[in-house]
User: What shape does this take?
Amino acid sequence: MTNAPLHIALTFDDNFWAPAYATMRGVCLATHRRRDLVFHLCHRTLTAEHLADLDKIIEEFGATLKHYNIDEMPLFADVASRARYNKRLSNIVYARLLFAQILPKDIKRLVYLDCDIYVRAPIEELAEMDMQGFPIAAVQEYLAAFITGGRDIQNFSGLFDTADPYFNAGVILIDMEKWRAEDILGHLEAAIADGTMDRIYYDQDLLNLIFKNNWLKLDQLWNTIDARPAHQALNPKILHYTDKRKPWNLVSGVAFTRVYRHVMTNEIFYRYMRHRIKRRLLKLIGRKPGK
Assistant: This one.
């Protein structure tokens, strides 16, 4: 009997190629169903070297990688040019709102993962769980009141009710048929037109507005937010490094730092470190990378 494919989507630009590789490799190392894995990589234009790094997942595990260069998509360029810009992550954050337009129509279940993620449990346990009729499943955000309320927990009055549950969008299990029926792009266009996007926390807030009280709450072990060394004792299934401290920093102070380095592999880890140092130096002297 053949197992169904396990569809997983990531969104990233060329500065996050190494964390994206580590996220995929963590998924592969934690499951026996490596050949069932289909990674849908929605990314900006990547260098040939970084593309080759990502494709090592195919060589090592036999998983399938599908590349979607969103720089070649007029729809993404149009939407991203009109939506509020995210200085920390760039407008790549809006790519997941276009999954209905970007990804194949025959996908029924999809796991979305941010790239600052380390997966330690078989992803099929998440991908194939009973969603109880909900369109998405996610973990409740522990900073919800501050995110939805803003300064003094009152800035976003009229958009959110701080008593409502609010999810972190770094790990989402998606019923793609229900996602397509929700018309996410239509909601985004309306939010741009009426100014809502100028007031909220980018795509995560928008998804919480769209799926208000219509999502399945997952156990926090499926998205252990702001993962610190103390979380290791909980044996988390997925760690999410949401803080500025990341496991690819030489001194990080986060959970499973040493293990993560070897998941990324030493060769890519140190090359990524040099890449980031070079970018910082170029920024200090006022030059753009690649110039």
